[in-house]
Amino acid sequence: MQEEYLLTMRRIDKRFPGVLALNGVDFTLRDGEIHALMGENGAGKSTLIKVLTGVYQMDGGEIRLEGKPMVIHSPQDAQKKGISTVYQEITLCPNLTVAENIFIGRGKGVWVRQKSLEKRADEILSKLGIPARSTQLLGSCSLAVQQMVAIARAVDMNCKVLILDEPTSSLDDKEVNRLFDLMRDLKSRGVGIIFVTHFLDQVYAVSDRITVLRNGELVGEYLTEELPQIQLVSKMIGKELEELSSLSETEEKKTEEKEILYEAEGLSSTEALPFDFAIRRGEVNGFTGLLGSGRSESVRAIFGADKVTGGTVRINGKPVKISKPVDAMKHGIGYLAEDRKRDGIIAELSVRENIILALQVMNGMFKPISRSESEAFADEYIKVLNIKTASRETPVGSLSGGNQQKVILARWLLTHPDYLILDEPTRGIDVGTKLEIQKLVLKLAEEGVSVTFISSEVEEMLRTCSRLIVMRDRHVVGELTGQDLNQTQVMKTIAGGEA
Amino acid sequence: MKHFSFLKRKEPLNDTQLLMAITIGIFLIMYVSAIMLFGGGFNHAQQIFDMLNDNASLIIVSCGLTIVMIGGGIDISVGAVTSLTVMSCVLYLNRGGNIYVSILLALGIGLAFGLVQGFLISYLEIQPFIVTLAGMFFARGMTTILSVNPQKAAHKTFNALRAKKIEISWLGYKARNGNLVPARIELGVLVALVCVIFVFLMLRYIRMGRNTYAMGGNQQSALMLGINVKRTRFMTYVLSGLLSGIAGYVFMLHTGAGNATNAAGMEMNAIASSIIGGTLLTGGVGNVIGTFFGTLSLTTIKKIVVTSGLNDPWWQSITTGGMLCFFILLQSVVLGKRSKKKNT
Amino acid sequence: MKKTTKKFSFNGFGQLTIPLIAIALLVVFNLIRDPGFFSIGISHNSNGNAVLSGNLISIINGASELAILAMGMTLVTAACGGQDISVGAAAAIAGSVFVKVLKASSSISGVTVILAFLCACVVAMIFGSFNGTLVAVFRIQPMIATLILYTCGRSIAYWINGGATPTVTSSIVNAIGSFIPGIPVPTPVIIVVVMGILFWLLFHFTSLRLFTQSVGINGSAARLNGIDARFIKLLSFIILGVCVAVSGCIGVSRLGLINHETLLLDVEMDTILAVAIGGNNLGGGKFKLSGSVIGAYVIQMLTITLYAMKVSSTDVKAYKAIVIILLVVIGSPVIKEKFSRFLARLSDKRRKVSVKGAEE
Fold it and tell me: From chain C, which residues contact A within 8 Å (Cβ)?
């Protein structure tokens, strides 16, 4: 007889226009288990979660809860059936009290009995050991407590499956531990917890099992204690460790010692801890580390995207002040942001307008690029970068992800930067485009442009970068060049020195 | 005193309470300094009652608007609906109508506007500003279609009702000729107070009220929490319409006549009252008690301007605008500081 | 800040479709009602000039202030995702300044009129930047921020006028409000054309359109591309200030007097409506000035049509409201979706029927 699972997902398929986001993925969850769901960007974990919570409808496959097959229509429907989710961004109302956040939207009748609800809420809070008062405004609680309140709500709704989607990314160590205690407590009550995170230490601290996804496919399900950290990293990133060591040493990259273009000392921003950094002319280097390690925040500080709080910056040896993006642009720095939708494209504007945007900003308001000129620029880059679009006047929002990314690349290339920062340029796009972008980076370097490259896929970075700065928990933990520039070494450094 | 109740609680002030406390505080300071500077009329209880008598309908309308604004919407039809109600009821009464039916008529007109506007906004998802703008145009137009000329109510029972005032002798004052003039409160004020208390209780203890706060605080979250956002939004507009109808009747009780220019600009005064009372147009924050004091503050500043000898007609609005500016900036700064503190 | 993305746009039909359909319907309706409605004649005004006259002319002439304000409002809407409700009050202030300066000079010549207009412009721009600062720097919603000036603007105008409604008698001012001798086209219409050309030049010789749309669509991305969003928002309010001054001066010139209470009364509501009817998203982003201008003419044509139908000027609002509601209901996303689903079902049925037919 097969083991009875709490939740079984079999051969789940989910297609988006042009992408197969989930390809026959299996996932199982047992009673009273904390199951970590791991994978890098675009691996399909968030899609899987969204299928499970009814945000998306799957295109194929089967979901069984306690052995019974079921269809989930909406997030509310999922909640009713006992599947609750606590998202990274709190989906509660900060302007209501803790008690109300636990009970609102659930009761029937006209009157809200505040006092009795508050009493019940206090009981739940003390039962779960959540350090909050029921009468407190949710917005006045720390993020960790807010998350715990969301969990308390789920628990009080008799959830069987609790999904925690990146719950720890904005918590400090103490808060994380408190959350873990709560998770263990729930586990002992028989709740199955799916834990999505990118912090490896936390996975090992709390989870029983790990399922790894990559590129929309299942890599495997493992018992946490049987899977060493470094192997987990390699499974997430791609290559099997054995395979790696059998690979011949990466050929040494020519690193001509050209002059230093950009140099920062103790640079920090509201989001990034102080760090030192330098790049030579024509050099390609990269920040690596897992998601949330501070790699993006560091490059944002270089570009002045977040408020810069300290440090000195020199370009070509001369001290300069970069406090906002336009300063960086004037000094020849371009920045392709990590979140394409939020920080990159102007969705409703045309491909042409998106391409000329940065150049136009640098030219200033009173030197508009003429229509014919901009059309020529757009046509040129559509051709050079092979952007697939119906016309140069198509709204950029209607293009596929890869082509949107190329449009933004074109936008920066058009400014002829000396130094280009590419944060996850290959995220969520097809393999062909990925290769094109990597080739482009190398070509740019040959032409003397310095590039800082960030990618979740280490392989990509090894192929393009001659120097890797490794980050972990918002600190620079190592710098790899020459001989050390191989996957094993990178993973060791990311995983924390152990092998 | 209601507004001191937060002192007994262990919780720190939330945004709603903080903004309300600021309003009440500034109102008290303003009033006390008016008494000290001008004495005169300000130390009579009648002064406050006059302010209430004159503004009962504005208070009621502001209550409705506060509900809508807490839910993250806006209703600029309220003044026009009030005006239409006045005109319809006066005309109806003058044709020998029944007084009870006239009350139902007032409620019906308000309700009808609320229902239609609420439906268009919540179920057809049309911008509230546009819908209620059209509602305002329609109500104003209908008022003049009914009658361009002012209509005085000539209904006996109604005028008897109008003349009814509550007199409190111990709050009265001695007139120059030595006679004791008792404090007079109009019936409309009682209606207004009932409305304030009702809305206060509704926002606090009734499910729909709490849902309104949730919806205004974060619509997406409210949806995820299982709140029927559409119905809640619909109800806020229905209530606002209904209260406009009530306000119309109260307005009629006060003036006793229908006029096409009745309640002109009342929607903006109501918005100003709500904002001064600590309601944010972004939604989720606000309290009807604050709105009540917001209206009083608006009136007090006007009285002060008049008393202080700035007799030119423009000073009232200019000081009102200045006060509005002050409160808006204050809110922006106070809430900005708070959210910064929370982040670090 | 919470962002409710309830879009009010007719983009699905092409932005200009709805306002153009509205105009077409009004034209057809009027032609059926009265075939001679749009006939243009030449008459002689009191000065003995030959001038164009007719309903069409009075529509185009009457919508001038609205059209000019709608242009500026479109820009504010696009950049800030909100509307300025103080334009009428600000126009009253500008008009008062205009009259005040004219009155201060002993004789009114062309130079003094220009000087007076420039003063009005500067004042309107100052008030515009006051609104703009509240919106751009203090991040207050445009409607709330401009409520301040809406509340006290007309009183400020009254104050400037010294508690009166001063009149100006000058042939130049009169010419601005009606006709320039020898030119049969009403001057306000010429001014609208000039403003339109100025806006065209502004968009042609600067990259303001691109920057404004970027800020309105995706403020975060605009910032990361080096656009100063605050400046763009402030600028949109200042430009609206210029539009306010122009339409305020036209309004004053039409009557030859400044009445702080009635000058461009309720124009803010009509202006916002014009922007919306023009198919612009009131939540900001992409915009078409031409849409808003057409929207302004739709409103005016509707008003004149109602007048022609013997609806009194005070009752017009009620009918206007019905038309507005019809327009927005047709444009509502929910209705559109239902309609397209209905069409899909219809074609589905047809296909099924034809398949059945083929099987048989």
Answer: 204-208, 210-211, 213-214, 217-218, 220-228, 285-286
